[in-house]
Amino acid sequence: MNWAFTSSGNVTETYAAGLLREMLEIPSSSYQERALADYLAEAMRDLGFQTHIDGVGNVVGVIERGPGPTVMLLGHMDTVSGQLPVRSEDGRLYGRGAVDAKGPLAAMICAAAGAVDFPGRIVVVGVVEEETPRSRGAMAIRATHARPDALIIGEPSGWSSVVLGYKGKLDLRYTVKCPATHPSNPVPKASELAVGCWDALVELLGPDASHGVFDQPGATLVQVNGDLTSATVDLSVRTPPGFDVDALVNGLRERLPSGRLEVLNSVAACRVGRADPAVRALVSGIRRLHAKPRLVVKTATSDMNTLAELWDIPMATYGPGDSSLDHADDEHIVLSDYLRGIDALTIALSELTHLPARPGDDPAGEAPLRIRSLR
Predict the structure, then answer these.
(1) CB < 8 Å & 24+ apart, contacts of 242-245
(2) Closest-CA residue to 163 (of 315, 316, 270, 278)
(3) What is the 3-state secondary structure (H, E, C) of 79-126?
């Protein structure tokens, strides 16, 4: 038997920990993911996957186990810039991407390899450029792959939590130029107009706007560059489900006396119900490991937003790791949580054997789950 597997067919804990450590040792900031993709293609091939790297750099591994549903597990390989020393300490593994999101992706690879009783097709994808505005990796997957029967996105939810949805995102750029003039001239200056654009956006969103509430928009002044004659301001708005992006953009344009407002990127919010089959499968996996599942919604965005725009299928986001450590200088994952995440995913895959489930039905006999809003 392959040394990577236990007698029951599951990936060994030693192999799982080693896989994640190797992934952390390979720097893979956005646009620099190829070395990690090459490593994962070989690692998955050794675990029994058919693998390839697609035209944009995504690594794809497929395990065929006979007729049955197709489940896709998709996480991202890229990290924010800034490599951290990789080290193990007190049951924690430190390194850039440990939680966001190499830990969840490694857990998906191990779970898929160990899901020996799943009678269908499992597709594991490591995508590029999730940490960039365009999400080019996920865009390519939705354009080139047939939609699966169910989808799980790999992001840090905490091993005992399932993410039902994310806010959307609207990225704007306002550019303005003005004739040269003395600073004391009472005419508007480019820098002042840039600040006025931000003020107008805040006024349009209203006093209840907040990044901390899922059902309200929240704005960020990302960057301002300028002087008296030219200025550029980048703005970002996190949007709740049903938010009218066109009305906001048109309303902001009407309030700007000059200059140009561009929409750089726009992705809608997404949210599934707690009875979604992917959610139910993950909840079952967590419960069978004797934990109380939490259902959460997040005020950030992920590749779930990108894929939900075109794929109306069962989906949820899941992965071991504490999301409050995303991009942090002490980013780390608790190894016992990582291993539990693998087990929960393996059980969830077994539960997804029974697709499709009836939409809109709550799991019979299960206690209600409270939905929380997180960053």
Answers:
(1) 242/269, 243/168, 243/217, 243/269, 245/168, 245/170
(2) 316
(3) ECCCCCCCEEECCEEECCCCCCCHHHHHHHHHHHHHCCCCCCEEEEEE
Using DSSP, state whether 24 is helix, strand or coil. helix
- CATH superfamily of the domain spanning 13-166+270-374: Zn peptidases (3.40.630.10)
Count of C-beta atoms within a 10 Å radius of residue 30? 18
* Chain centroid offset of residue 43 CA: 23
Half-sphere exposure (Cβ direction) of 168: Cα atoms closer than 13 Å:
19
Residues forming the active site: 78, 130
User: 225-272 pLDDT, tens per residue?
Assistant: 999 999 999 999 999 999 999 999 999 999 999 999 999 999 999 999
Q: Per DSSP, what are the bridge partners of residue 59?
A: 53, 126
pLDDT tens column, 288-312: 999 999 999 999 999 999 999 999 9
Phi, psi of 244 (to 5 degrees): -90, 90
The domain ranges of the chain are 13-166+270-374, 168-267
d(CA 107, CA 119): 20
Q: Is the peptide bond before 143 cis (omega within 30 degrees of 0)?
A: no
Task: Decide if 316 contacts 282 (C-beta within 8 A).
Answer: yes
Q: What is the pLDDT of residues 56-108, one digit of tens each?
A: 999 999 999 988 999 999 999 999 999 899 999 999 999 999 999 999 999 99
Which helix (H) or strand (E) segment holds residue 221: the answer is strand 218-226
Considering the segment(s) 168-267 as one domain, its CATH architecture is: 2-Layer Sandwich (3.30)
Q: How far is CA 64 from the centre of its chain?
A: 26
Cis peptide upstream of residue 104 (ω within 30 degrees of 0)? no
